[in-house]
Amino acid sequence: MPPSVEVAPDLSGLIELSRIAHLDLKPVILRVQTDLFVQAANRDRAQLESFAALAGGLIPIVDESTAIIVAEKLGPFADTPVSVLAKLAARGGRVRDIVVRSARALTPGLIEAALADGTDIGAAIAARPGLDRATVAELSRRADPAIDRVLAGNTGLVLRGESVGHLVGRARADPDLARLLLARPDLSAGELAPLYLHADPTRREAIRETVAATAALRPCPPPPRDLGGILIGLSAARDVPGFIHALADGLGLPESFLRAAPDAGTRYDLLTLGLRAADLREEEAVYVFLTLDEAVSRSAERVFDLVRLFRTTERAAARDLLSAILDRPLRERAASAEAHRPHHAPDGAKVRQTAVERPPVRPALPGRARKTS
User: Buried b / exposed e across 291-318, counting CB within 10 Å, b at 16+?
Assistant: First the structure.
């Protein structure tokens, strides 16, 4: 049976010894009294007041390492007097963060003590398990990188709604935050679609399948005419700026859209999604991989990976993935005003149907001239 406060040894002699010069026993006394308090079988009002008086007097003057040890024991302990927690929080730094993170309840007095030195305690609060939805939402709206990472790594709370949108949106440009969010078990593949380029192969596959399932429920507008032929010609000429401009213009994206990739290695993944969204044929995409950038074409493994991505991504899913990664919709098919004029409106003139104009046949891929002897 753990010792109780009633049978605790008389430490008054140690208190007297602590007053001797060059002999500091205050940390020892505080740690011993803390252990006895936590392990006691019963604590009445007098014992709580006695411990609060002793600990309250020693906490402000002991060294940092002792205060940290005491905070780790008393912070989550249900019977710790609020006044003792306030004394610990008032020390600031790591001791304050431990108390704010682990205390059973954040009372007004405890919060006031934690804020005494003017330091923001948002990150410490974000580390608390079981935070309510309103508090999580308020913290996520701050757009503080430190708070974002603590929230993302806190598996003791559930991220929902606008909080997920805030964190995932900022994680597009923050690889560390993206890594923490991708590791969470409570976020669905659909919610993590904007972080596709940060994900590992297994997570990417789950995201593609989820996006494809929802994309299939909506009509997918056709790509601009002749876009494939234009891109093939520019790739054959190794005109990288012209190629990027034509692809971006055809999809309704900014010319700098490849900068959304977290690193140089994922830019071609983003480009491949663009080629799929532009409805290139597989052989045309392979031709681009082999001609546009010599650094890519020299790696057979890299080309195979890009082809695999192209094959396993539906065009509608590629459009939705691009939209999620870039946080902007892709352009729908442009049409003239006449194309939307109803032919049989009550006040409209009947128009005789004519032969439907077929789109021009896409030119064959450029060939290489054979050497003759």
Answer: bbbeebeeeeebbebbeebbeebbbbbb
CB neighbour list of residue 180: distance below 8 Å, 6 or more residues apart: 149, 152, 153
Token pair in block for residue 87: 């004394």
Angle (CA) 92 97 102, round 5°: 135
H helix runs in 252-281, sequence order: 264-277
Query: Closest Cα to residue 16, out of 25, 7, 8?
Result: 25
Contacts of 185 (CB under 8 A, 6+ apart): 155
Whether the Cβ atoms of residue 169 and residue 163 lie closer than 8 Å to each other: no
**228-233 CB contacts, 8 Å cutoff, 24+ apart:** 228/278, 228/279, 228/280, 228/281, 228/284, 228/362, 229/362, 229/363, 231/275, 231/278, 231/280, 231/284, 231/288, 232/284, 232/287, 232/288, 232/363, 232/365, 232/366, 233/366
Residues 208 and 300 in one domain: yes
**Within a domain: residue 161?**
yes
Whether the pLDDT of residue 353 is over 80: the answer is no
16 and 146 inside one domain? no
| Residue partners of 120: CB distance under 8 A and separation at least 6 | 144
CB atoms within 10 A of CB 48: 17
Number of domains composing the chain:
3
When pLDDT is averaged across residues 181-205 and rounded to a whole number, the result is 96
User: 22 is written with which tokens?
Assistant: 């060059």
Position of tokens 């753990």?
A: 2
Same domain, 304 and 220: yes
Find the range with the poorest average confidence among 23-32, 68-77, 247-256, 288-297: 23-32
Domain, as residue range, for 28: 5-119
Which of 119, 144, 166 is the endpoint of a domain? 119
Q: Is the pTM of this model over 0.90?
A: no
The answer on 272 and 221 residing in a single domain is: yes
